Batch of 4 targets.
Target 1
Amino acid sequence: MVRIFRGGTPLPDELEGNVILIGPEACAYEGLITGDLFARNRARIELHGNVAGSLFVERTAEVVVRGTIGRNAKVSGGDLKVYGQVNGDVIDAGGTLYVDEGATVRGTIRKAEPPQTG
């Protein structure tokens, strides 16, 4: 299941499945998302809760992680700041990435591989 929310909309404490958050209003979230979180279209979120899956920060979105990401966090054209915990890799595919020295990343912090041609 995929659920789509506009920023500024109150979010339930627990969201099952994947969630797409779109902007432009900023929001904070302290609950649990059982799937992946996609931030896009000028979304701005401060995440104090938990995402069981992966986080995808797409073009023009801004995400601050103070909670926990269960798998990978990938920024591709947006802004990602990590102060909390990522249990997988943090992948920079373009955009702005900041990982605080107090953050926990259980995988690697790396640039995305460019697509192979030919």
Target 2
Amino acid sequence: MSAFKIIHIVAGALTAAGGLIGFLKAKSIPSLVAGGVSGALLIVAGVLSSSSPRNAAILGGIISLLLLGRFLPAFLKSKAFMPAGMVSLLTIGCLVTVILSFLPKR
């Protein structure tokens, strides 16, 4: 199993779980929907990486950039690791694997 697949599936599961936690703690429907959709799409990117690596990388990259754009500013402002720092760290990991997937293989 590739690093791309592992990181995207784990990040997707944690993102979806975070959306559920946001809903349970604050009754935030936007957290539930956004976490569920973005988490599911990251998992899809991980699963697709075997059969369609280019499409998986594009999907994973887009979702990761959107999540990073939302959570990195919040983390830099609040300095609170949960949830903004964790999501930022996960999406940076996803983006690293996306970039590496486009580099020529040796």
Target 3
Amino acid sequence: MYHLVETLRIVAILIKPAMEDTSCKIFKQLGIPENMQEYNTIYNFGKELKNIKVIEKRWATILKTWPRRRNKLHKRTNAKQNKK
């Protein structure tokens, strides 16, 4: 898992010029300190991030609410099919 977090950190650094908001969200969710969000830290793969803990558990929230979302989607789909 550590390598996954480190790779996502590097991806966020590389997309920062084009997608600044997205890269900021990635850094926030991964709990990456500001000093490790700079381009020159890419070369330190696996050396600096030792005590990183992922902050947001977005997927847990999505999975909890999935049955409600699925039911709403089915209702919309059925309503569209009945109109035809």
Target 4
Amino acid sequence: MRDFKKEGHGVYVKATGERYEGEFKNDQCTGIGQIFYPDGRYYIGMLNNYLKDGKGRLYFSSSYIPNTSVDNSKSAASLNSSVSAP
């Protein structure tokens, strides 16, 4: 932690139960990381300020959506609501 800001690899847990494990830059969840959701889904890939941004994969309990590509203008909530399990 530099100047009380998160830097490097770490873990962040939200009150909703979502857990982020990955890179922090300037106190933001930015870089390569994983987001684990309380319902069992998880995302592995690029993030920019906790938003899915670039290449990554969204996994469900029984399958995954390969090579998911997200542009930074969409929030994590909009991607999650627009993708359904196969």
